[in-house]
Amino acid sequence: MALEHAILVSLLEKPGSGYELSRRFERSIGYFWTATHQQIYRVLKRMEQDGWIDVRDVPQQGRPDKKEYSVTGPGRAALSGWLHEPVEPESVRHDLAVKIRGAVFDDPAALIREVERHRQAHADRLTHYLAGEQRDFTGAGAEAPLDAGQELQHVVLRGGIAYERMTIAWLDDVLATLHRLRPAP
Amino acid sequence: MALEHAILVSLLEKPGSGYELSRRFERSIGYFWTATHQQIYRVLKRMEQDGWIDVRDVPQQGRPDKKEYSVTGPGRAALSGWLHEPVEPESVRHDLAVKIRGAVFDDPAALIREVERHRQAHADRLTHYLAGEQRDFTGAGAEAPLDAGQELQHVVLRGGIAYERMTIAWLDDVLATLHRLRPAP
DNA sequence: CTTGTCTATGCAACGAGTTGCATAGCAAGA
DNA sequence: TCTTGCTATGCAACTCGTTGCATAGACAAG
């Protein structure tokens, strides 16, 4: 399970509340690990019971109070332990691939709009990633050399960019294949 | 949920038992959708109750008897329905990306072996995919034109190949970054 | 002053997925 | 004969993840 560890990383980068974490999971961390606020609140509770994180009530003005979590020594140790143990390489899961293989039992051409929709979604993500790269890593490049944390964040982002580019190219291949099949007998 | 639908596709391609399905999920279908035999047996039971599939007891010689499942009319209709409704584009989930971002709170160099291990696993998968492509799609290309089902299987396989190539290139990028960070103060 | 939106936290129920274990037929080799 | 290994099916218990719902403070627009 990596949700706990993803939360530890995020809280080490900057302490925050469950709500703030759920926002972060919509952007940077969420590029490679998604989580809803339900999951986050539940896991935060367990992590607190396990002594991995501390809570602090933070009164706020103009908005409801929040609970700010920060990583404890044992939490940091738990992350270290996990970093040193191997994880299995992920297997991909693509609904769309199932659909493409299933299309032969229905109408392949009916999939074209769906594939185009996916292509658009991936193109949007790519644009978003590229904007983030421009903002966080390219702009200050010449004058302020990046520290190790930024280098590592950047290489992860480059992975996201490569993934989206590859996916878009593949979806173009899929579309070409579907169009080629259309005028068949 | 796509497991039901992946099973429908696989059973439409060729009827089979739960055991056979679990073997298929280790190879072709499993390239983009994994499932253990536990999941498969449980889902097969539900699908049978829902009338999506039929069972037939098949006595065998030299091995235990099996139950062969095949798709019914309602099952085929359920697949059709699913093919026509949109699915959300997947979000990636990468333990490794979490580890890379977390490495800055530990020792980045300690990740090198882990990343190399992943690189090897992806290189193995790529070799496997390429062998499958050679066997199923390239060999008979000139004389026997592919039918629609084969074309669609091929484009899905090309997706797997593109994914592995992209991942290997990215892991090389990650390794270069980790090596670059090593001689830092 | 009501409605909508954003922040902020949480419960309950369900479905999906994993892990460990159990059983049993049959075959091949030590 | 005993062990190992492959085929074949399944239960039980657990964790992970999703969905729908509920509450509540603050603010802004109509």
Draw up the topology in text.
Two copies of one chain form a homodimer.
Chain A: H1 3-13, H2 18-24, H3 37-49, E1 53-58, E2 66-71, H4 73-84, H5 95-102, H6 112-138, H7 148-181
The structure holds a DNA duplex (30 and 30 nucleotides).
Protein name (chains A, B): PadR family transcriptional regulator
Pfam families (chains A, B): PadR, Vir_act_alpha_C
Domain Transcription regulator PadR N-terminal (chains A, B): 7-79
Can you tell me about this structure?
Chains A, B: Residues 7-79 form the Transcription regulator PadR N-terminal domain. Chains A, B: This is PadR family transcriptional regulator. Chains A, B: Pfam families: PadR (PF03551), Vir_act_alpha_C (PF10400). Two copies of one chain form a homodimer. Chain A is mostly helical and 185 residues long. The first copy, chain A, is 61% helix and 6% strand. The first copy, chain A, has seven helices and two strands. A two-stranded antiparallel sheet of chain A has the order 1-2. In chain A, β1 (53-58) and β2 form a beta hairpin. In chain A, α6 runs antiparallel to α7 (148-181). The first copy, chain A, is elongated. Chains A and B meet through α1, α4, α5, α6 and α7 of A and α1, α4, α5, α6 and α7 of B. The first copy, chain A, binds a DNA duplex (30 and 30 nucleotides) through α2 and α3.
